[in-house]
């Protein structure tokens, strides 16, 4: 990996600077920072925690949710190696296909990066901040500190059951259970602040722009506020107040000197990665059925002209699936925008036909269905769409 101009400084020095900020977790003993290649003694409680993490990692690999794309894998790994070159060989990246915003770092060195996070990062700098934050937890050994603090106040049998359950539910599927476990095992607020500081320092040292750190939080908070639902949120359930975090990150980023040079991972960049996966990941967002949040996300993604067709199509899909008053009109407008922009999936014609038919415009619905069949002659639903045309009198 190509290193930024500041990467010659030892990573330990960066973390010592974090330690001097006075962010020690109340009631938890600070540990020595993790050294490159360091493993716990086999007879230690930390080794037991690593064994649980090993089990969780195996479950992740067998879950069927790991994205097996070497280009995406290399891109994320490249950012991690730029942020923490001394630990590059020690960190294993697993990109998990799920629409939620999240990344986690286990004490044994494996990191989960969820596709919902990559989709929401507007640039490599924003993604680097989140990955740097997780590396901060890892390098400061926060999991071990938290484990020991909980163990000291929890019945040993109950604690073992919690760890076993946590290892058995590594990915999505049981959101409430994961959120509950996350709440129990969540880092303290001081740990989160410490990891934020580490993330900012690591990204600045690597040449990324710290001013991008609060921006990804602002975008996430806007989605959360738009949804306005009391549902379990894995990320918000295990992190402090986003308003507090945004304010602190703005202040620290403003005080940080601008990076000496722009950092970029080797190989294809962020825009290329999104171009490869955007359509599939937006489809996952639709299945999440969080319509208001999806509209906020799509508004941000629509700033990228190259994504205009895909984004407009999925905005139309949100309106069509939501089905509130006026949504058919909004959906039809979005589908037409997608078709005019170019690059939209051919399904835009089929969806346009559906909303026009539902609104009583049978003539234009027929035209839209015909355009779909012309553009997708081998579509799996060809017979069904052809039957729509028969029903419409064609």
List keywords for this structure.
about 400 residues; 3-stranded mixed β-sheet
Question: How would you summarize the topology of this molecule?
Answer:
Layout: H1 11-19, H2 45-61, H3 70-83, E1 92-96, E2 103-105, E3 110-114, H4 115-120, H5 124-139, H6 142-151, H7 156-168, H8 175-185, H9 189-206, H10 213-227, H11 234-237, H12 242-255, H13 270-288, H14 291-301, H15 308-322, H16 327-341, H17 347-358, H18 362-375, H19 382-391
Parallel strand pairs: 1-3
Antiparallel strand pairs: 2-3
Portion of residues within helices: 55-70%
Largest sheet descriptor: 3 strands, mixed
Give the integer mean of the pLDDT values: 81
* Tally of DSSP β-strands: 3
Give me the Rg, rounded: 23 Å
Looking at the structure, what is the overall shape? elongated
Poorly predicted runs of 5 or more residues: 1-26, 166-185
How far is the first residue's CA from the last residue's CA? 60 Å
Provide the β-strand percentage band: under 5%
Question: Structural class of the secondary elements?
Answer: mainly alpha
Strand order of the largest sheet: 1-3-2
Number of helices: 19
Written account of the structure:
The chain is mainly alpha-helical and 394 residues long. 62% of the residues lie in helices and 3% in strands. It has 19 helices and three strands. Helix 13 runs parallel beside helix 15 (308-322) and helix 15 packs antiparallel against helix 16 (327-341).
Short recap of the structure:
This protein is mostly helical and 394 residues long.
């Amino acid at each position: 990996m190509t290193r930024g101009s500041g990467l010659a400084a030892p990573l330990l020095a960066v973390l010592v600077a974090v330690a001097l900020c006075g962010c020690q977790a109340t009631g938890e003993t600070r540990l020595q920072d993790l050294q490159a290649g360091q493993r716990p003694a086999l007879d230690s409680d930390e080794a037991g925690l690593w064994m649980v993490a090993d089990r969780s990692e195996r479950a992740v690999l067998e879950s069927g949710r790991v994205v097996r794309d070497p280009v995406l894998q290399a891109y994320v790994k490249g950012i991690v190696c730029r942020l923490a070159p001394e630990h590059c060989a020690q960190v294993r990246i697993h990109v998990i296909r799920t629409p939620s915003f999240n990344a986690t770092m286990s004490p044994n060195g494996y990191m989960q990066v969820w596709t919902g996070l990559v989709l929401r990062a507007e640039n490599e700098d924003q993604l680097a901040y989140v990955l740097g934050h997780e590396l901060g937890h890892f390098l400061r050994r926060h999991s071990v500190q938290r484990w020991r603090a909980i163990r000291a106040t929890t019945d040993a049998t109950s604690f073992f059951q919690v760890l076993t359950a946590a290892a058995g539910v590594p990915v999505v599927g049981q959101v409430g259970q994961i959120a509950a476990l996350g709440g129990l095992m969540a880092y303290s607020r001081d740990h989160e602040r410490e990891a934020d500081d580490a993330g900012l320092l690591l990204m600045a040292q690597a040449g990324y722009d710290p001013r991008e750190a609060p921006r990804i939080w602002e975008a996430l908070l806007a989605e959360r506020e738009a949804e306005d639902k009391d549902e379990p949120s894995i990320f918000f359930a295990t992190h402090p107040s986003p308003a507090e975090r945004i304010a602190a990150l703005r202040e620290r980023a403003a005080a940080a000197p601008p990076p000496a040079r722009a950092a970029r991972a080797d190989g294809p960049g962020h825009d290329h990665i999104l171009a490869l996966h955007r359509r599939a990941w937006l489809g996952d967002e639709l299945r999440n059925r969080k319509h208001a949040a999806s509209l906020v996300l799509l508004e941000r993604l629509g700033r990228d002209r190259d994504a205009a067709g895909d984004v407009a199509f999925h905005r139309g899909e949100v309106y069509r699936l939501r089905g509130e008053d006026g949504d058919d009109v909004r959906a039809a407008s979005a589908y037409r925008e997608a078709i005019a922009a170019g690059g939209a999936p051919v399904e835009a014609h089929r969806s346009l036909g559906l909303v026009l038919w539902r609104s009583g415009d049978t003539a234009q619905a027929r035209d839209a269905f015909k355009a779909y069949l012309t553009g997708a002659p081998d579509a799996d639903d060809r017979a069904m769409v052809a039957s729509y045309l028969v029903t419409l009198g064609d």
